[in-house]
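This entry is passed on directly below:
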Amino acid sequence: MTGGRRGLGAALVDEALARGARKVYSTARSGYLDDRPEVVTAELEVRSAASVAALAEVASDVEIVFNNAGILLPDPLLTGDFERVTDTFDINVFGPLRVARAFAPILAANGGGALVNMHSVLSWLAGSGAYGASKAAAWSLTNSLRLELAGQNTRVVGVHAGFIDTEMVSAVKLPKATPAEVAARIMDGLEAEATEVLADDVTVTVKAALSGPVESLTFSALR
């Protein structure tokens, strides 16, 4: 579980344990403690291949990998700080890819398992700058990984969600789902062997609009 210390990641840890997980690896960028014996905490910097490789050495028994770590820097593509734009892509796109590359052989050795990538409803909507563009790229990444990992029986699940009531979007004044609600939907999808999880009603609505005019696919449509 990348990004398991708080927010949705913490809710996913709780939900996995509630459904009987015997061990959950939960990571954050800095070390932290969890007193539950089933939870193994670890430091992880998804921008570092060495950090990801070190985690893979420790977590060689995993059967499900959750790519949840992410960053929200919605800088405009034309006028935003370019370093922040590249940081957004490095964390939201190349981070999950580093994790997938490191853990694919482990999942294969353990029977296939599943890779779960966290996207956003903004994967499909223009208007959130670098963040939305990175999530669109992450969606495409997931769809291609699904094909590449099919031969080793690894199921690749893409999760799309609207706004979740976490610190990351505390300033956004729009309806939000709770982390626990989204975590439960993700786990339900895994148990149902879904390849895509639409975690809330707004995401279902936006997905249905993808066949319509591209001009209508904007962040302002949610307001």
Q: What stands out?
A: The chain has a mean pLDDT of 93. Residues 125 and 217 are 5 Å apart (CA to CA).
